[in-house]
Amino acid sequence: MRLFLVTFFLCFTYTFGAKVNDETCEVCVKFVRRFENSLEDAAKGNMDKISDAFKKFCLTAKGKDERFCYYVGGLKTSATYIVNELAKPVSWGMPAEKVCEKLKAKDSQICDLKYEKSVDFSTVKFDKLKVKELKKILENWGEVCRGCTEKSEFIRLVKELLPKYEPEAAKKRKDEL
Fold this sequence. Notes:
There is one protein chain. This protein is mainly α and about 180 residues long. It has helices at about 1-15, 25-40, 45-60, 65-70, 85-90, 95-105, 130-140, 150-165, 165-175. The protein has 2 domains: about 1-110, NK-Lysin, CATH 1.10.225.10; about 125-175, no CATH class. The longest helix has 16 residues, at about 1-15. The termini are far apart. Residues about 10-15 have low confidence and may be disordered. Its main location: secreted. It comes from Macrostomum lignano.
């Protein structure tokens, strides 16, 4: 019984006691900050206006931001609705970290969202990247490597398309050679 209580306490502390910051709850904190900065002064103290503004803000969200909106209830397709749990503290002027702590208490998946790491094309060694990462680069550019079976083929195509999609990085790479 004692072991069960200790285990329960540790799990509870880990789940609800962890501090929320840019690293532990990256998408939530950054998205809430951007949302707070986008609010007009007239809406800042009114929960209803904040809720409506959040739903409008979510309409333009993409990727992990869109997933965050889905979890909170800012999208029409959302299964849950905890927008008021976001709107109330925002209306009080609470910092994004504290808002995300409150949201995490309602839905722990909110802090599981992480942004994908961006690649510095001017310094990256393409041969060190995984094929999955090379495919993701091409996908982000809207390109597909048809018939590619070897890693070297993906690398060749990424290097070939680099000047088209990342001209500054391509120029820096040429200057280094």
